[in-house]
C-alpha cells in the first residue's frame, strides 16, 4: 500500500532525524549492523497506529503480536541451537513521513533491534529507508506495493528493504484479467486515486492488460467526499464494470454514492478494500457486487492447514475474522524467523542475507519466494462482497 500524506519530507530532514536519534543499549550498533544479547531477539515495529491509515497499521499490529506470541510459546527462535524469545518494540509513526523516519532511527540506534516489521504503506516505508540502511538493519513491509519500493533511483535494489506483499503492477494486471475473463466486461470506466502511487499505479497496470474498452478514465484525490458528478457521467455510459483503485476511506464513499444513485454494475478495486472499514463506510447493503484483488483470502486459505490454524488462533484471540493485513504482517514476522534460523544468526546483516534467500516459504498468504529485487513471488486472489460480507473468492492465474 502507498498512501500520500500532506507534506513531503526532504532528504535533509531525514538526515537530521537520523542524527538526532542517539542512545545506548545492550547491544552494539554500527555500520556493521546490530547484534543481540544472549536472552532475546528484539524485533522493531514501525507502524501506522494512528492518523490517516491507522486501519491498516492496527490490523498488522495484531498479526505481528499473534506471530511473536506463538513463536515464544513454542520456545522462541533457534539461533544456532540456542532458543531465544522475541521481544517486540512497537512504535507509532502516526501516518507521518517525518515520524516514520525518526521511529526508524530510534528502533535501530536506541533500541538496537535485529530487524523491523513495517511500516504498512509505501510512503511511510520509503521514509524509513535512509535510517535503516545507515544502521544496516533489514525491514519487511507487510503491505507496501509500489513497484519501485525496493529499488534505488539508479535501479539497484535497496539492500535492507523487503516486502511480504505483491507489487501494484501484478495486482492491477490480475484485476484486468479477472474483469476480462471472469466478469466478461467489455466496457469499463476507471476512477483512480491520483494522490497516491497506489491508485495511479494500479490504474496504469489495469489499462495495460485489460482487453475491453476503457470508456472513461477519471481521478479523485484523498480526502474528497462528493463523487456524484463523475458517477452521474458514468451512469449514462452503458458500462459493464467500474475499476476504482484506491483506499477504503474514499472508495467506501464512492460505492455508497454509486449504489444510492442506482449504479448496480460490478465495482472492482485493489487490496485497499480488504479492511472491515470499507463495508462500514459504504454500508453493508451497498457493498454488494464488489470485487477486489487480495494477497489473502480466507476462503482460499481454508484449503491450507497452516492458514486454517492461523485463522482459528486469530479468531480466538481477537474475536473477529483475520483480515488481509494481519495475515501479511504475521507472514512478515515468520519471514524474519526463517531468515534467522537459515543463517543461524540474529546479527542484522545476516538476517538481511537470510531474507534475500527465502525460497518456497510456506506463508499464510501463500508460498513465497523472494526474488532478486526483494519482492515476493506469490499467488493472488479476488474476493467478492455481498451485503458487506465475503461471499465468494477466485484464484487468478
Automatic annotation (TrEMBL):
InterPro entries: BCAA_transport, Leu-bd, Peripla_BP_I. It comes from the Bacteria. The keyword Ribosomal protein does not apply. Keywords: Signal. The keyword Signal applies. Residues 41-386 form the Leucine-binding protein domain. Residues 1-27 form the signal peptide. Belongs to the leucine-binding protein family. This is Branched-chain amino acid ABC transporter substrate-binding protein.
